[in-house]
Specification:
single chain, alpha+beta, Glutaredoxin, 4-stranded mixed beta sheet, 9 helices, 4 strands, globular
Length: 215
């Protein structure tokens, strides 16, 4: 059984959703028969690296809201992350474009390391306050996920795997995905958002039962 996940490493709910899905998967009786594949999705393709702009002011600016409103929204996200054992440090988060990170994810995916690189990129962005558009950071993060430094450097020196990123995004558009995280189980059952583990578990069990009934 396969689970396809569209995600952006700039998205806090994608990290929360990843962890909630993993908690559900651990409880799933047939977890060893589940293949997970991550797909690229850019929430803000035009985002620029702005190390001097913190996450609170960035969201307030983007949504046309006050800084106080933004702080309150981020506090809710921090609380949601803490519920599944994640620590978000929005005081340190660096606003950055995620396109090169997605190319790195595509490289990792070609080697079966996409879940590993997603985790490392989320940690770098939300916990360690690193610039995920910085080549040095991407090299360090890729190595932590099991990739070789030379292949990462080659990737970042050109435009390799750009088409793969765009292909994922085109599929998302065709399907009608407008927000992430977005999960498709066995190409039939969709789950949108960082749902509770029980929802993911129910979806996995439903998809498994359906697949066996069809056979």
């Amino acid at each position: 059984m396969k689970v396809d996940i569209w995600s952006d490493v700039n998205c806090p709910f994608c990290y929360i959703g990843k962890r909630k899905f993993e908690l559900a998967l651990e409880q799933f009786e047939h977890k060893n028969l589940v293949e997970v594949e991550w797909h690229s999705f850019e929430l803000d393709p035009n985002a620029e690296a702005r190390p001097g702009l913190n996450a609170y002011d960035y969201l307030a600016e983007k949504k046309g809201q006050t800084r106080e409103w933004s702080i309150q929204m981020h506090e809710q996200v921090i609380a949601a992350a803490a519920e599944v054992g994640l620590k978000f440090d929005f005081d340190q988060v660096v606003i950055a474009n995620s396109f090169n990170a997605h190319r790195l994810i595509q490289l990792a995916k070609s080697k079966g390391l996409d879940s590993e690189i997603e985790e490392q990129l989320f940690i770098a962005h939300f916990t360690e306050g690193k610039n995920i558009d910085d080549h040095t950071v991407l090299i360090e993060t890729g190595k932590a996920a099991g990739l070789e430094q030379a292949e990462i450097e080659t990737l970042l020196a050109g435009d390799t795997l750009t088409n793969e990123v765009r292909a994922d995004e085109q599929i998302a558009q065709q399907i009608g995905i407008s927000g992430v995280p977005f999960f498709i189980i066995n190409q039939k059952l969709a789950v949108s958002g960082a749902q509770p583990p029980a929802i993911f578990l129910g979806a996995l069990e439903q998809a498994w039962t359906t697949s066996k009934t069809e056979v």
